[in-house]
Amino acid sequence: MSTERVTDEVKFAYWVPNVSGGLVTSDIEQRTSWDYEYNKKLARTAEDNGFEYALSQVRYEASYGAEYQHESTSFSLALLLATERLKVIAAVHPGLWQPAVLAKLGATADHLSNGRFAVNVVSGWFKDEFTHLGEPWLEHDERYRRSGEFLQVLRKIWTEDDVDFRGDFYRIHDFTLKPKPLNSPERPNPELFQGGNSSAARVNGGRYADWYFSNGKDYDGVTEQILDLRRHAREAEREVKFGLNGFIIARDTEKEARDTLREIVDKANKPAVEGFRSAVQQAGNSTADKTGMWADSSFEDLVQYNDGFRTQLIGTPEQIAHRIVEYRRRGVDLILGGFLHFQEEIEYFGANVLPLVRELEAAESGDRELVGV
């Protein structure tokens, strides 16, 4: 089943490992590092291997296998200054940031990087990060209402003068930002991403964001979300793009890839995974319709803490390329990839998987032209 709009070429992003512990909560070897020198080299490798975006994740204190963390906005700027083409997305939490302050930082980062800075608005799943800092912990839908206001304030400050905003969470009075980001008709102000799976997240994505990030999903799960998301966008007379999380295990044979997945799960850090599960599953279960992130995740799903295994980008380059193109047919605009050994696996992906994706896309494009679609 396809949705109403199919992108010409799917884009690729990778999770920045700026948090210790890698992208799986497992005692398996992960040849990766959260330090800056490793990540600087990785960012350059990624942009040379067809990746257009990188997402700097954020945790503010130790939790569930992530003992150390670099802050996302400063780390993103450092990566932007070390690269030439890569767009870096910084994850931020409303409630811990004042949107006008972030707008000022974002405009500066936009100028310093020649327009490559972006923001992912994360409404928050980790209660302790708020309560330990003395900030109120809101109920699920209230957190997303606050994020909706946060997205609106950022957009207005980046595009308008003398901004007034009177919301339930943020009040802005006659505020003008100068300099503004490097806006142009071809490249609007810093791209805004909204993360989530819930109904409230989809409303925000459709009404206010440029991109919507989903946890890992199978084909049916992706189609259901995209149709709902684009309904909200149409109602607001907008268009929004869709990004899908997936943990990528590309190997020369399917057996090698499946054996790697089995080893990751067999060596899972069970106390850390169970602790994470108890912290996050309230996020989905606290929504009225039980559609939130992690609401139906199994133990195995949560070993990759954004359900990346569920996207099933696991196998040979040919198998993974075909699956990515199937997601593209359903309306996925971007794949956000996690890897076990980032440096060498991003190189392998760029050499062996991405060219196959482009070949399949080109063949489909030619077929559509022949039938006049």
What does this structure look like?
It comes from Rhodococcus triatomae. Residues 12-333 form the Luciferase-like domain. GO terms for molecular function: alkanesulfonate monooxygenase activity. One of its GO terms (biological process) is alkanesulfonate catabolic process. With 373 residues, this protein is α/β, with parallel strands linked by helices. The chain has one domain (11-370): Alpha-Beta Barrel (TIM Barrel). The chain has twelve helices and twelve strands. The strands form three sheets. It has an eight-stranded parallel β-barrel, surrounded by six helices. It has a two-stranded antiparallel ribbon with strand order 5-6. A two-stranded parallel sheet has the order 10-11. The radius of gyration is 20 Å and the shape is globular. It starts with 10 loop residues before the first strand and ends with a helix.
**CATH homologous superfamily designation:** Luciferase-like domain
Secondary structure tally, helices = 12
Compute the separation of the termini in Å: 17 Å
Which consecutive residue ranges, at least 5 long each, have pLDDT under 50?
none
Q: Helix/strand/pairing class, anyone?
A: alpha/beta
Number of strands: 12
Highest-level CATH class: Alpha Beta
Shape: globular
Q: What fraction strand?
A: 5-15%
For the report, how would you describe the main beta sheet? 8 strands, parallel, barrel
For this structure, the CATH topology is: TIM Barrel
Report the C-alpha radius of gyration, rounded. 20 Å
> What string gives the helices and strands in order?
EHEHEHEHHEEEHEHEEHHHEHEH
Number of domains: 1
Pfam families: Bac_luciferase
Keywords: Flavoprotein, FMN, Monooxygenase, Oxidoreductase
Organism: Rhodococcus triatomae
GO molecular function, one term: alkanesulfonate monooxygenase activity
